[in-house]
Amino acid sequence: MRSSNNLIGLVNFFTFLLSIPILGGGIWLSSRANSTDCLRFLQWPLIIIGISIMVISLAGIAGACYQNKFLMWLYLFAMFFVIAALIGFIIFAYAVTDKGSGRFVMNRRYLDYYLHDYSGWLKDRVTDNGYWNEIGSCVRDSGVCKKIRRDLNGVPETPQMFYFRKLSPVESGCCKPPTDCGYTYVNETVWIPGGEMVGPNPDCMLWNNDQRLLCYQCSSCKAGVLGSLKKSWRKVSVINIVVLIILVIFYVIAYAAYRNIKRIDNDEPVGEARMTKSHPSHFQI
């Protein structure tokens, strides 16, 4: 029984360690939500799951150390639902970021982003006027467009140098006009009409060289935010999948050890008779 308790305690310790990358992923998403991604939603379920795993693991460790079967049972019961919640989180994260990606542009290294390439719950949430007013302000206040400006000895970089830069989805969607609008490059965030408009893209009329406006109300900016969210959530989901697999393995080991403890407790100690009588009966002939 002692070896089974030690095994459960060890498994719970490693489970506690596994909660750290989950909690770290939630904190990382939270930092992104306050800067680049600007959508405060998915990080909170992840943070709650990470904290829950920590607390439940501590309960399991205490149960193993003090041989408290109730705490061990509570660990197994609660961890089952946490694992189910983590599976649901991963499925949800992949489902809402399933569609949409940047488009390759000829003679450009960066990608262009179009809102109609995306669909589903996440797109509806981002494009909702109430949410977008807050998200657009967050993107503008983050200074992401100011950060893409580069000077070479006080001279802005050339168009060719800019065209072959690798921009983030938000930088490409919010800080410059779409390529098919035919604008001419002056610097990273200043563009002037320089050719015929290509295609009926409404963003072409929304672009403004005013640094407070730029393309923050463009559909391409909303698509850029969606593209950034997709990258962030997918990175975290990959880590969560690895953690989930290890967590399930540890759960199975802990469950088997707990069953072994129950089996040992149900067996009677060696040397004790199954039925004893304080006054044995005497047979009379």
Automatic annotation (TrEMBL):
It is found in: Membrane. It is a multi-pass membrane protein. GO terms for cellular component: membrane. This is Tetraspanin-3. It comes from Arabidopsis arenosa (Sand rock-cress). Pfam families: Tetraspanin. Keywords: Membrane, Transmembrane, Transmembrane helix. The keyword S-adenosyl-L-methionine does not apply. The chain crosses the membrane at residues 6-29, 41-64, 70-96, 238-258. Belongs to the tetraspanin (TM4SF) family. GO terms for biological process: auxin-activated signaling pathway. The keyword Transferase does not apply.
